[in-house]
Amino acid sequence: MRRHAPSAERNREPILAILRELLPSRGTVLEVASGTGQHAVFFSRAFPGLVWQPTDADPTALESIEAWRREEGPPSLRSPLVLDVSTAPWPMESADAMVCINMIHISPWEACQGLMRGAARVLSPGGPLILYGAYFIEGRPTAPSNLAFDASLRERNPAWGVRELGAVTAEARANGLELDRVVDMPSNNFTVVFRQRGG
Asked: Does the pTM of the predicted model rise above 0.90?
């Protein structure tokens, strides 16, 4: 039942270093598009004071997340919930932080729009929405690997693709979220942090 993504093993430590700076010491973290469940187990074990709520829209992913949780998850890791970000309502009404890793480019643009709408609804004032993945950033050279990645994504599904950070930021601001920081990560990825206004 457990699925395994090598990329999750590679990027978990760099992401963890950023999460240590951003996540509160107590509260609930909503992880959107948890995929295999590897990150959910790893991060929930690193933050024992936080309730970690994984989600996904894919039934196969939900099975994998639950299998990882049962075999290796701490008590603070909840069973996964079904969440399609493009629909409302969401299965959670509030969260102190949100984490979304490698979803925006492997989904239609409507998923990004739904993510921002949902984050605006559920995040506490000042709460972070933490995104990780590849982005095109205006004024910065694009790595050849990201251009190739974008082409491969669009070949698999024309609605997918590496997103322009400016467009993502505009969508966030339209829903009351402000850009907090952009952090360079290994392998030409970025961590992008938005915050709910009022914090």
From this structure: yes
